[in-house]
Amino acid sequence: MVGYGSNVGFDDDMRAEGEPEQEFNPGIASRLPRKRVAGGLLFHDDAGRILMVEPVYKPTWDIPGGLAEDDESPLAACRREVREEMRLDIEPGRLLVVDWIPRHGVWRDGVMFIFDGGTLTAGQLDAVSLQADELSSYKFVTLDEAADHVRPSLERRLRAAVAALDSTVPAYLEFGRDVSES
Prior knowledge:
The protein is 27% helix and 26% strand. It has 182 residues and is of the alpha/beta class. It has a single domain, classed as Alpha-Beta Complex (Nucleoside Triphosphate Pyrophosphohydrolase).
């Protein structure tokens, strides 16, 4: 079991936290910053290519997954989005990357998580059915091919995720760059 996917223990953990604390300074909680949080799955095929999707709502490709809703973990968001957009019920594997991205235009800063989606089988690929108002296509590509269709920060994040497949620890990035190399 990964995380609280089936809420096993979650209710007990929430009860153990006790009553929520009251605001010492009324209104402070509503003034705290909000961040976007998203979870994505890095799927690959037997040749080592990665699965990319083509969203209908933006000009660049992405990996399957999406934004977390209020009170939803990045892992649960990833699982939900892949199920909704591709009709795949996949239990995400281990965490590969956490990447903080800065505000860009109208988009707030955010924290992006990539989990290992493993190798998709022929049967799983046959079951894919894209949600037409979200995705127009999907394909397996090399990292170099993906680079032609994603923003530079996502390319860096994807390269770190692929490298993390061969590591025992996830990578922590800021805007796609490993800050431990500084």
